[in-house]
């Protein structure tokens, strides 16, 4: 590890794989604890990475999650291949969700994911192309 | 938690079940890292050789005080046949040397009311997490420091009972408070440790804790002399029910409450809370032992038998309005410990290094090492799983050849190399040996 380079982690996410849902976020959380990041910061990172991870599992077919942990910040990029989001502004509204009834019955898809992530992050970017997929970048300062 | 070294065979049962990975086998014996230990007693339960014990007091110790109060945990009642009345059990405590008894179930009655009040507050973090089980509180400190605000800031029933019991004894005897011994008859080692290292208060008021298994025989022997004729004050069935998983929730009469027992499952549920799920839950009762306190490692009876007996007693509807009989003017703030409470601090023992850059480097070493390890989590290296071994290697307390598979690989490579070197004998030597023949 070079002096200014962070620790890099990569996770592959599969759509509809609820068995492994949350595994990536749990691992990130554990590593942040081992690194010694403050617990309230860890909580924000854990919640936002979990919500983003779940979004891929619920809505997309396949995704990659890349995490870089630096001494002063954590950056997470999630890119998925999926249906994409036609109206990001609408998707960012609390309570708006395109999740199916089946997903809602499982307790997900309450339309709180994206606004929740945005609230937890110090920097948040989302881009999406309908029919191709979505990319989320988030950064949280330690 | 203490290890009886001569009994320890260095098997991996304890390390495999420790929820905070606090134990390693080194030099053929288990070693507990105290800073990580949450005193859940899982290692006591899992050890086939009974090499782990909790440091508890014994009956002898009460002799150092002129006046002694026994504080029986409600789980004590589940240890005896349901035809042995609670009155008889309480009397047997007097028989073995205590001057008076005070049921912890009475403290539970008071705490139940206080929690019910607390849950009505609009400003609290939800879900509120019960702080009655000390092992759970310690698990939060070590593994979920971000949830400390969720812990209910009310002392456990045993502390509340101790305060009232000591006050009453002072009034009754005229002795100074420090001359009164207040002894908890405990099902679990975590409560023992609470006496030595209290949670949420400066000092514990309890003088000591005696394991149920320690005193069980004495009580059995005392039964024939007890007729249950003494008029002793009694707690309500709801307070007694705290010994069972779910008993706390039903005593508090909380709506939207989730009950979870067994430390591994508690870990899983708290993980979900930490991820921001379970927002609709108001209150979580978490107990470290399977079945609740009746499953404590210092109990004697099978927890299923104890559960049946407790249920019989709780359903017996004896003394339904016992709390009304509590003939003390309970100053809630004082007995609930509100005055002397201190903040429960996080214990960041999972951290690999004080310096964040060095910690990051260690995590990287760990991740790289983990890729090379077999991932069988057999525990033969003395660490609970491959991940923990990788962590120990990064910390410099273990090396890769501690792994039997890595060692075998290395021996095989070495052997191959030796054969190769042996085949490559220099020509003159061959010639010389040819000359000799």
From TrEMBL, chain A:
Residue span(s) of domain Histidine kinase/HSP90-like ATPase: 19-139
Entry-linked SUPFAM superfamilies: ATPase domain of HSP90 chaperone/DNA topoisomerase II/histidine kinase (SSF55874)
Gene3D superfamilies in the cross-refs: Histidine kinase-like ATPase, C-terminal domain (3.30.565.10)
InterPro entries in the record: HATPase_C_sf, HATPase_dom
Lineage top rank: taxon: Bacteria
A Pfam family matched in the record: HATPase_c_2
Protein name per the record: Anti-sigma regulatory factor
